[in-house]
Amino acid sequence: MLVVGCGLVTERLHLPVLAGLRDVIDVIGFVDPDEGRRELCAAAVPHAATYADLDVALRAAAPEEVLVATPAGLHRDQTLAALAAGAHVLCEKPLAVTSDDCVTMIAAAEAAGRVLGVGLMRRFLPSVNAIASLLREGVLGAPRTFTVLEGVPFGWPVTSDHPFRRGRGGGVIYDAGPHLLDILQCWFGELELVDYADDAMGGVEANCLMTLAAAGGVTGTVRMSRDVLLPNRHVIECERGWVAYHYDVADRFYWGWHGSPTANTVHLAAPGSTRPMWDYPDPNRAVSARLSAAFEAQHRNVAAAIRGSGELVVTPREAAAGIALLERCHRERRLLDMAWMDPAELAQAARLEVGA
Q: How does pLDDT run across 195-238, given as a tens digit for each residue?
């Protein structure tokens, strides 16, 4: 594997897992324009080469697989270059910034006969899949509504300004949204946008509120935030009962019957801590410890697809559907209701958005 991008996602989330998968995946090189970052990552894999330029690396290393773990705005061109060089690709989320870019990447992978995996690792959490089975089997009756509240003050120690660039994958919906929409698609199928509002005001949004619909009359609301601590809880109301999930908790969820005062806890066999991220003194270390099993499962799944011994759990077409919805959110955005602003401030906010 050639690793493209040596930021914190690679250092803290992928590398610790890849170190334990050397019987399956051999990391042969790192690519990053920042010499310090690529040398830091390469220190964990002494035999790996380092490169400042992707094209040079692809020619010199001739990798079977490339991990693209760079800012979102770079995903399309780097994935296309890797596919053109004959490599399979695991591209971190989001697959791309636009749905047109996703279509181009998918077409290139199919034409080359290569695997294109997408880094939506939450689909490998046992809790997410158990809830999908519960809903599919109709244990609680048909789902009717869902409410998602997901947000923590942004504290990821970024190594570039891409998360704050408008039109380059910046903002909360391109950060948290791909994972969240992928989970909702796993549970409810294709999603339709009913309404979307945010506080971008010409920049990138820190807070947003969307209303979604799915087949069977299912409707739901999603609130995401980068500056407010929210309950980080997904609640699904069904005909006969309800189910609740705390995001990133791998091995448990809760359910109950309507009218019953008892909430039931389902414990699943899964490694890692079940403490919510916001309980930890260092949330970044907590994420790494708790989600390593999901990252490992994702890497093993892509490796199996490459070797023809399995199929991708998350397909690029599913990821592209999520990007199309996010694109529509930005295209149809309205100003979030912010009652603390006076009329003059709201007017200025509207002008900022129009002038963006």
A: 999 999 989 999 999 999 999 999 999 999 999 999 999 999 99
Nearest to 34 by CA among 12, 51, 46: 51
Domains of the chain with CATH codes: 2-119 (3.40.50.720), 123-284+311-335 (3.30.360.10)
User: How far apart (Å, rounded) are the C-alpha atoms in residues 303 and 180?
Assistant: 24
How many CA atoms lie less than 13 Å away from 21 in the CB half-sphere?
A: 22
The helix (run of H) or strand (run of E) holding residue 214 is strand 207-214
- Spatial CB neighbours of 36, under 8 Å, sequence gap ≥ 6: none
Contacts of 118 (CB under 8 A, 6+ apart): 90, 91, 93, 95, 314, 315, 316, 318, 319
pLDDT over 70 (residue 272):
no
CA distance linking residue 119 with residue 91, whole number of Å: 6
What is the dihedral sign for C-alpha 33, 36, 176, 200? Answer: negative
226: number of CA atoms within 13 Å, CB side?
Answer: 21
Q: At residue 143, what is the residue type?
A: P
Alpha carbons 90 and 280: distance in angstroms, whole number: 30
In whole angstroms, give the CA distance from residue 67 to residue 65. Answer: 7
Beta strands 65-68 and 2-4 are parallel
Q: Round to whole Å and give the CA distance between 156 and 309.
A: 36
- 20's CB contacts (< 8 A; 6+ apart) are 296
Stretch 66-90: mean pLDDT, rounded? 97
pLDDT at 242: 98
Kindly state the average pLDDT of the residues 12-25.
Answer: 92
Query: For residue 322, which phi and psi values (nearest 5 degrees)?
Result: -65, -40
d(CA 223, CA 103): 28
Give the pLDDT of residue 237: 98
